[in-house]
Amino acid sequence: MKYSVIHRGDDISFQLMQTFHTLIRERGLHHDEANPDVVLSIGGDGTMLHAFHKYKDQLDTIAFVGIHTGRLGFFADWKPDEVEMLADMMGESAQQNDLRVVKYPLVEIQITTPQGIETQLAFNEFTLKGVDVTLMAELHINDEPFETFRGDGICISTPPGSTAYNKSLGGAIVHPSLDAIQIAEIASINNRVFRTLGSPILLPKHHHCDIYPRAGQNILLSLDHIIMQRDDILSIRSMVAAGKKVKFARFRPFPFWSRVREAFIGYEPIHEKKP
Ligand code: NAP
Ligand code: MN
């Protein structure tokens, strides 16, 4: 089993990477940055996003795992003082040639410009915003006109990304076993000309949404942490990525809802059982 490490760049993450290299070599794993089987991200969820985009063309063969060096990360769920336990479990799974993984759905977008169609993948979400003025766009679902949007922007997120930007927009948290994408509005303006539904919606697999920005607009497009300014976008189609998922190595169980509770609510049970 080959591994690679991505770290946030701070001293603590760097030190932890050095420790991990030593521990994991003792357990027989080889470092291979180009073709790893397991990618360890040391830092936060943002570091995991970097890891994802670095290896997004190898998703079939790679499983990710994360150690958090800040607050509890959503995807970086191992603590720094558990690094040896993680190395033990990785070593064991390498020896037995048995790597357990969970798979999460992604969003695929197809950007149509006068030059052609570009395809991109996002792990958390993609967003579309206006640069100088509010975004104006027509939204179609499954080739039927749905609404005319005007406002700050539109966020289309994956189930694992539903706890990120989408959550701040009042979107629902979606269990990653559901193959769906969520469309959430960012401060829509509603009047007689521009009418939007106002509620976040979920699209299942095989449905698609097309966004047609008003021609000539300067647009800010974000894919996770990557932001680009574009004025050549004719339309953007989004859908659940077909046949592409991101895999996380599960060396121990940590259910999604426990993760949500620990990240957002806290560890303390309200009703302590009295003896
Ligand atoms: P950032 O500004 O450092 O990240 C914003 C926060 O989102 C950080 O606390 C980050 O955790 C957390 N986060 C990222 N993915 C998450 C997930 N799937 N579930 C729960 N929390 C998550 O920028 P960044 O680290 O490069 O991350 C880019 C992401 O920031 C975007 O994909 C978007 O989801 C999010 N964002 C949120 C808002 C908002 O809520 N208003 C606005 C813009 C962007 P770490 O500190 O562990 O990295
Ligand atoms: Mn961050």
TrEMBL record:
Where does the source fall among the domains of life?
Bacteria
| Classification via Gene3D superfamilies | Probable inorganic polyphosphate/atp-NAD kinase, domain 1, Probable inorganic polyphosphate/atp-NAD kinase, domain 2
- What does the UniProt entry say about where the protein is found? Cytoplasm
Pfam families, A to Z: NAD_kinase, NAD_kinase_C
| Alphabetical UniProt keywords | ATP-binding, Cytoplasm, Kinase, NAD, NADP, Nucleotide-binding, Transferase
- What cofactor does its activity depend on? a divalent metal cation
Q: What is its main location?
A: cytoplasm
A molecular function annotated in GO for this UniProt entry is: NAD+ kinase activity
Q: Enumerate the SUPFAM superfamilies for this protein.
A: NAD kinase/diacylglycerol kinase-like
InterPro entries xref list: ATP-NAD_kinase_N (IPR017438), ATP-NAD_kinase_PpnK-typ_C (IPR017437), NAD/diacylglycerol_kinase_sf (IPR016064), NADK (IPR002504)
Quote the EC number. Answer: 2.7.1.23
Residues that bind NAD(+), according to the entry?
Answer: 45-46, 50, 124-125, 150, 152, 163-168, 187
Q: Which reaction does it catalyse?
A: NAD(+) + ATP = ADP + NADP(+) + H(+)
Q: Where is the active site?
A: 45
Q: Does the keyword Hydrolase apply?
A: no
Which family is this protein grouped under? Belongs to the NAD kinase family.
Q: What does this protein do?
A: Involved in the regulation of the intracellular balance of NAD and NADP, and is a key enzyme in the biosynthesis of NADP. Catalyzes specifically the phosphorylation on 2'-hydroxyl of the adenosine moiety of NAD to yield NADP.
Q: What is this protein called?
A: NAD kinase
Organism of origin is Paenibacillus konkukensis
Gene name linked to the record = ppnK
